[in-house]
Design goal:
It is a single chain. The chain is of the alpha/beta class. It has one domain: 3-Layer(aba) Sandwich (Rossmann fold). Helix content is about 35%, strand content about 25%. It contains 8 helices and 10 strands. The strands form 2 sheets. Strands 6-7-8-3-9-10 form a 6-stranded mixed sheet, with helices on both faces. Helix 7 (about 195-215) links the parallel strand 7 and strand 8. Helix 4 packs across helix 5 (about 140-150), helix 4 (about 125-135) packs parallel to helix 6 and helix 6 (about 165-180) packs parallel to helix 7 (about 195-215). The protein is globular.
Length: about 250
């Protein structure tokens, strides 16, 4: 018997509420996001509700343009919904001023990108410590060296990015994302520029970080193989959540 659309939506909502704690770390409530493009309004997300617990690994999968990156940007308070609310650790992100947003991003969120986004004029350890230096935090070098040890690059701190392999550069990017001990890691196609073997090593490292450090990880990926490592897989299509699969 074919499931009605209303029943399917209820099933998705129930799956999205299965988080490790009653109070989720990240909560999107009926979020819609519109963009202006060439004089027209383009809808990137439509009525998305999503909850994610602490210490949980969730993958967003779907074709390019389905809304994965938009959802990540909203989750990290890099953008804000046209309607609906995004709560990070219980705080509505759209209600914060610029100073509060900067503080939230620096202390609660770490970003990992497909293109690594390392500064090539800085050494490995300088890239990792940069967020702490910008925030005026004490002990930046010590913490950067510790995070490089976490990703097994403790002996490469003085190298320049161009002296590293793609996998090593992504490890540096992960160390930088972790340097402020964020509660939430956001990864946008973190293995997209890597070969399969190197990508698998990076995915295993991310999985270990979630398991050992209790960090939450929200990852956008085209790869179903990569998504299979997560606790839940959220399938997106045309700006909506189509299905939620509990691993």
């Amino acid at each position: 018997m074919k499931m009605s659309e209303a029943s399917r939506d209820l099933d998705i909502e129930a799956a999205l509420r299965r988080t490790p704690e009653a109070k989720p770390l990240l909560h999107l409530k009926d979020v819609t996001k519109d963009y202006a493009s060439q004089g027209q309004i383009v809808r990137a997300l439509t009525g998305v509700s999503f909850a994610m617990g602490r210490g949980e690994f969730v993958s967003l999968v779907g074709r390019s343009g389905c809304g994965k990156s938009t959802l990540l940007n909203l989750a990290g308070a890099m953008d804000f919904p046209t309607s609906g609310r995004v709560l990070l650790d219980g705080v509505v992100t759209s209600g914060l001023d610029d100073g509060q947003l900067t503080e939230l991003r620096r202390k609660k969120v770490g970003f990992i990108f497909q293109s690594f986004q390392l500064l090539h004029t800085l050494s490995v350890v300088e890239n990792v410590e940069l967020p702490l230096l910008l925030a005026g935090e004490a002990g930046a070098r010590r913490l950067a060296e510790e995070r490089l040890e976490w990703v097994e690059l403790g002996n490469l701190g003085e190298r320049m990015p161009h002296q590293l392999s793609g996998g090593q550069m992504q490890r540096v990017a992960i160390a930088r994302a972790l340097v402020s001990s964020p509660q939430l890691l956001l990864a946008d196609e973190p293995t997209g520029n890597l070969d399969t073997t190197t990508g698998n090593v990076i995915l295993e490292l991310l999985q270990q970080i979630v398991r050992d450090r209790g960090t939450s990880l929200l990852m956008a990926t085209h790869s179903l193989e990569a998504a299979s490592l997560s606790d839940r897989v959220v399938r997106m299509r045309d700006g909506r959540i189509e299905e939620v699969v509990q691993r």
